[in-house]
Specification:
4 copies of one chain form a homotetramer. Chain A is an alpha+beta fold. Chain A is about 25% helix and about 30% strand. The first copy, chain A, is globular, with a radius of gyration of 15 Å. The two termini of chain A are about 25 Å apart.
Chain lengths: ~180, ~180, ~180, ~180
């Protein structure tokens, strides 16, 4: 998982504490796939973040981050949307708090669809319509809006971090937009 | 089911044709439960329509109507929302076209939770956030906004047509707002 | 849609009556994707029916059929599973009556993902684990069990009738088995 | 949350380590509501565990337990079903790994529907059909099977630990069995 964006509440856990927690427990994440809808609710575009990974490769990802102790899932989702898309994105948070998909990230490749070399993370995934203008923070290079067809393509899904191409396809399937 | 509101395209089926269809097939409906959300997506209010039924009793119902031949579910949903809530309701149609609930209405009471003495109807049910102002058409007396607790109460659910109290409770459960 | 299997209750609607209904209303269908699960509930195989279409081409499809007047969705699902898979398939019908996907079939190609030249049909789609042995009726040539990867491949999805490759991919996404 | 049943792998975390983790992170749980289905998939009974809580009161709960580091959600679900229902329960694990409901437990009452004085826990909740015979471990007094009506009653839901009456009602709503 790639929440290398600086956290607005960095003091909640020190690096050591986070490392210890990662050695003991699965870490709870939320992830959001930003979408643009037309007036009838049909998806027109999928928003993917461009980012440079630790190997200086350009990769794609979605909005992602940890749920803090004492924080509701809904608040964590809002916090990470604001962190990754800026304050003017006006995301429409889901009325239904049940995720459309649960992504399980394991450190060793081959344990499943999703991988994260830092930790075992379990991520509650949401589709979030965005109505405003997005302004990713500086560590994300760009937010690109793609058509459903482009977002589902082999080229794009192969560029996504940690196997998240499957997550994008699952979102498109849920939206009735995956052929 | 209670779509006694005049249809904007009355010519699509004559009364005779509709009657014949009802004798032969289950009739496909869409239903929508209007909700108000706060900035984090949490439900604050449920919208229920007050209506006078054929026995001149005041009853409650939700947005409801048939899917026409050649019409997409999404378009039918939009059409009935506009018909029942007026043009300024600004409903946010669901990105996910899968209903949260399927209600099966049978003519004979006792065949299940939902009843409709006119027909066998199968209804795809959606939760629809509404951001504008609602102005029900004249045959609906009023749209009332209730708290989740009030909407789930015995008093309110017992006033709902055709067993739709169960539909309201199912919606609240889906929203994480049914205790 | 391809329910050309002879219906066990052919008298419910004459051909003329069915034709009339098709000219007036969307027709309600159920569809089921048979799957084999391992002991932990993970999908191991997807069952697809081979069939010869009106042009004598071999095509693939899923379990599919109409909901009759007065029939519950659950009963229609069971009836068509038995019709298409035989009496020893032992399907595990879903406890949750909400479909995982709604497929809208229109007569004209280009109106959406799914097409059916006979009618406008709206289909409630379910994933149904099957534990017994399947014995398709004579008009279906065979039931073939495919791995999730094979079922999602371009080759297989392009052979499916009416755009149902998208339905298979949506099912795999829901099962966490679409990469 | 009430997983006071002895864990089959107690060595995974010492009490101290668990306590430290609880002070730092939300703890990931799975919960399962055992159900009996008829041949058409309709729920006939809901299984609730009777247990004596720390105040020596008899309370009701559902199958519940932590997800361990490195463990898949599906494996955790299976492990806790076996722990709480015994080896002959033959649970049918869900093909769809998405929970039907997410329950958020906070230590302070009033922070939401669900409460757990030990920790902030986030629980992925599943409905699990059970076909065999259940034999709860000694620390659970009994597994009782209730009709959907009885399980949804005020009497029963008020006896459930941590607000889980709402969880049972949400399950019944999802099964189309909550009036």
């Amino acid at each position: 998982m790639a929440v290398r964006t600086p956290d607005p509440n960095p003091g909640w856990l020190s690096d050591d504490e986070l490392q210890q927690a990662r050695e003991r427990m699965p870490i709870l994440y939320v992830e959001a796939i930003p979408v643009r809808l037309d007036g009838l609710g049909q998806v027109t575009e999928i928003g993917l973040l461009l980012r440079m990974n630790a190997q200086s490769e350009i990769t794609r990802t979605v909005v992602s981050g940890r749920v803090m102790r004492g924080e509701r899932v809904r608040d964590a989702l809002y916090r990470h949307l604001e962190k990754d898309l800026g304050p003017m994105a006006f995301p429409q948070l889901p009325a239904d708090p049940t995720p459309f998909h649960v992504a399980e990230y394991f450190p060793l490749p081959g344990d499943g669809i999703y991988a994260d070399d830092r930790q075992h993370a379990v991520s509650l995934c949401y589709i979030v319509p965005v109505t405003g203008s997005c302004d990713p923070r500086q560590d994300a290079l760009e937010l690109t809006w793609l058509s459903p067809e482009a977002a589902a393509s082999e080229l794009v899904t192969s560029e996504m971090e940690g196997g998240r191409g499957a997550l994008v396809r699952a979102a498109l399937a849920r939206l009735g937009a995956l052929r």
